[in-house]
Design a protein that fits this description.
With about 280 residues, this protein is of the alpha/beta class. It has eleven helices and eleven strands. It is globular. Aspartic acid binds next to helix 8.
Amino acid sequence: MRKGFQFASISLALLFMLSCTRNTDTIVYPTFEQRQQVNALLISGTTNPGQTALEHAREAIAETFGDSKTILLINFASLPEKRDAYLTRMQGLFAEIGPGYEMHSLHDIELGRCAEAVKSAEGFYVSGGNTFLLLRELYDRDVVDLIRERVLGGVPYIGSSAGSNIGGQVIGTTNDFPLVDVPTRLSLGLLPAVFNPHHPDPALDKIQFEARQWKIGEYTRYHENEAVIGVTNPGMLRIRGDEISLVGIGATAFVHSDGEKQVITSTEVGEVSKALSRSVTR
Ligand code: ASP
């Protein structure tokens, strides 16, 4: 009787722990071995002021995708009625990046076959829009872990804006409104930080810059174990295994980690991973 009671209590405790793991944002960063093959590009602004869409990122996109030409577009950040047109637009933009790209979109694939499409993609391009909508639709299709697994296996990942937000550990510092609820804010965790796109540049807009820094400061006050990296519109983070670099002419990254702030303007290889090194080992 007593044993039965103990067994039931332990099972209940285990169940409770499991449900907690699911419902709280437990950050799991890939192990050193797991992250060696990551080849990702996290773009801040799809359009850099004064340029056409993705013009500033063409070279970095071509370099990241390399020989991978069959790209799976994930455009769930757009409203459902806009996704067809978005695919056509992206196919046009990719024709300007280089020859041979073939782009299909996950929104054209029926729910039950999404996993198959993720498994066979040669590269992922996750476009911008609303971050909550994007993550929710990926969880609805049960492909978050699968995308992560494939990227850890070396399949190139390019995110833009909302697509870059989900490259971080959680979507804690998106600028978006929660259009829909998400089962968890945990995202792909390719970056040992939380991403904030479209970070204002103090040289261009001091007031907006200060407001964003304030907001991020409030965030880290409640999430002190998370590093946050804000990137200005011309900027991108290139992740190659453990080496994370800032890319883009005139780009700046603002790193908030362990109560300290660092500003990165150098596009030297590995500058961002150096600034994040303490959070990498968490
Ligand atoms: N709404 C943005 C985008 O995808 C994401 C963000 O600002 O957090 O363009």
